Amino acid sequence: MLTPVFLFAGQGSRYHGMGRWLCGADPVLRDALDFLDAVVRDVRGDSVVAAVHGDGHGAELPMTRLSFTQPAVFMVGCALARMLRARGFEPELVLGAGLGEVVAATVAGMFDPEECLRSLLDQVALFEAQCPRGGMLAVLADAALVDRDPALAGAHLAAINAPDDFVLAGPADRLDAIERHLTASGVLCRRLPVLFPFHSPLIDGVRGAFTKLVGALTPRPATIPLICGTTGAEVHHRDPDHFWQVLREPFDLSRALEPLLARDDLLFLDLGPSGSMADLVRARLPRGSRSRVLPLLFPFARDEVLYQAVLDTRSAIAAPTRRTEVTAMTVETPAAAPATPGDGFDVDVFPGQGAQAEGMGRDLFDRFPELVERADAVLGYSIRGLCLEDPGRDLRDTRYTQPALYVVDALTWPAALQEGGRLPDYLLGHGLGEFAALFAAGVYGFETGLRLVAERGRLMGQVTGGTMAAVSAVDADLVREVLRDSELSGLDIANCNAPTQTVIAGPADAVNRALALFRDKGARCAPLNVSAPFHSRYMAQAAQEFGRLPMAMPFGWKPSGSARMSGSRPWPCAAAGTSAAESTAMPPAIAAPSPRRRLRVSRAGMGHLTPRKGRGENAAGGLRRAGPIDTVAAPACTPFEAGWNERAGVRAGRERTPRRILQARAA
Predict the structure, then answer these.
(1) CATH classification of 346-462+537-662, choosing from 3.30.565.10, 3.40.190.10, 3.40.366.10, 3.40.50.150?
(2) Phi, psi of 468 (to 5 degrees)
């Protein structure tokens, strides 16, 4: 049985339209939002709900006005908590980060919701009148960089989410300069949609007025244990100085999460607007843990799907029987080392061309309608119609194959996150699949990746008269020998999928002649379902043209959480514009087999690498033939959350620091 824990994120987690479906579908949540919205209207005459739900904006447009974001995050968190408790989810404890701790304290009974909301509105007026403007910058690097790099002077460490994931706060002009410096140095960073330098000494001027506002709140004892995201300790009393520290000091969630992750009987429920806390917790789940992590909201998923996934866990909920004893970790507590190949690690694999088949993505399109709509707008045709019906038999045409596979592969990532299990340590893409892996790692957003892939398909579609074929049951040396001795110099080795499976590419007539020779040598040969000789010299011109495109595209890790960045350490070349072209023209040199590596594949790969086999056998068989690592494959993630989309969210290693990209090529 599992025991619920409620998680609450801070300022940067909000987005337009958050909770809109739930507001219409769940009367408990709607009543709670209406009650709190009436408080806002009474105080200042406007409606937060109308601003969030009724302005016609989508999740892609950042919310930056503190006058709406601060009350909106509080109202949504409180309403979700009331809804869940009405459905039988009684938390054993609550945990929040930044503003999320104020929400958690209210849910724990320490503050009256109406009184606290009125105080938050007064705090907004205080911040806007007396706080200097500034911002926050998320950085994917070791936090020690703050002390090592003098170019970061003038900004302050605001949060540490992982050993290689931190947030800076500072004046806007300094953050602009630091962002340029880090980008030029190859360090991924991204500005958060926050207009004040919270969690830094730059806001010290409002301390007296802030603590006075908090001190005016009626003191109430907590009825649920409240864990502080800043100190990791349990909070017992309403102390104005404590809540000032929550706003002012940098936080390190690992101190709060460590004692909880030592248990394996918890159901972590993220009640923040965008699932960012779920990312951080899921990324740190120990291997083999029975605990689960689920979000209630996510910008690009259907609220009803997430809602139902949470309700489906009610049968596994244990009645609360004990308090959790929480011991604060000190800053000196050493973090676990990242996973290494010797430790064993999980890899999610995204397949490339050849994995496509009519019907792929059937169970994904309805789950992520906004992303599907955006894909249709970019492509100018229905991606659902192409994948499910293929009326023009276009799935074999690389101009259509590539966008279709990218969309299906990309949608499997948020779908996998919805499951609430442990995230992979690494991501790996095979050919075209590397673009989906880069998206999942947060190197670029969904639309950026799709535009790159669509242009890649267009350029590669201009190459005609060639094909590819897989040669199995013989090693690559024999393949090279046959090509050399038979004067088939026009053929290239395109892929080395396994020690006994090699893919050749070149003119169609030469490929057909070669296959007859390989069969005479005892090989098993299979033409591939592709329209051109990919990963060969014949792609050189397309690769050269394509190589210029990424330089004009908006690369860079895009978080959507507040001082939260579950990011990755993606392929260093991605931002330089070289990797994308190389993935078009270069043959992959596959890594040596390792029995310590467990692999999972995306839904597209699971369903279509070896479509004649059953699901479990399909996974292992497909990976052994088409993937670079020969191992026992875990079942694929079935179709959350976040950190994907224009964000990133996976951690690797024992500390579960983010996703890393494994290249299916030699360095």
Answers:
(1) 3.40.366.10
(2) -140, 160
Cβ pair 641, 334 in contact under 8 A:
no
Q: What is the CA radius of gyration of the chain?
A: 26
Angle at which helices 369-379 and 398-417 cross, to 10°: 160
Q: What are phi and psi of 60, to 5 degrees?
A: -70, -15
Cα-based angle 255, 259, 264 (whole degrees, multiple of 5): 135
Residues 205 and 130 sit within 8 Å (Cβ to Cβ): yes
Question: Which CATH superfamily, name and number, covers 466-527?
Answer: Malonyl-CoA ACP transacylase, ACP-binding (3.30.70.250)
E-strand spans in 399-449?
426-429
C-alpha closest to that of 137 among 124, 156, 150 = 156
CA distance 212 to 122: 11
Low-confidence ranges of the chain (pLDDT < 70): 12-13, 55-63, 300, 319-345, 419-422, 548-667
How far is C-alpha 558 from the geometric centre of its chain's CA atoms?
10
In the chain, the N- to C-terminal Cα span, in Å, equals 46
Q: Indicate the pairing of strand 234-235 with strand 426-429.
A: unpaired
CA dihedral 557, 563, 564, 570 (to 10 degrees): 30
Instruction: Name the CATH code of domain 135-191 (choices 1.20.1070.10, 3.30.70.250, 3.10.129.10, 3.40.50.300).
Output: 3.30.70.250
pTM of the predicted protein model: 0.60
Residues 6+ apart with CB under 8 A from 155: 137, 146, 168, 169, 170, 174, 175, 178
- Residue 535 to residues 228, 532, 539, 563, 596, Cα–Cα distance (Å): 52, 9, 7, 41, 29
Q: What are the CB-based long-range contacts (under 8 Å, 24+) for 140-146?
A: 140/164, 140/165, 140/187, 140/188, 140/189, 140/557, 140/565, 140/567, 140/568, 140/569, 140/658, 141/166, 141/182, 141/187, 141/188, 142/166, 145/187
Percent of the chain with pLDDT over 90: 37
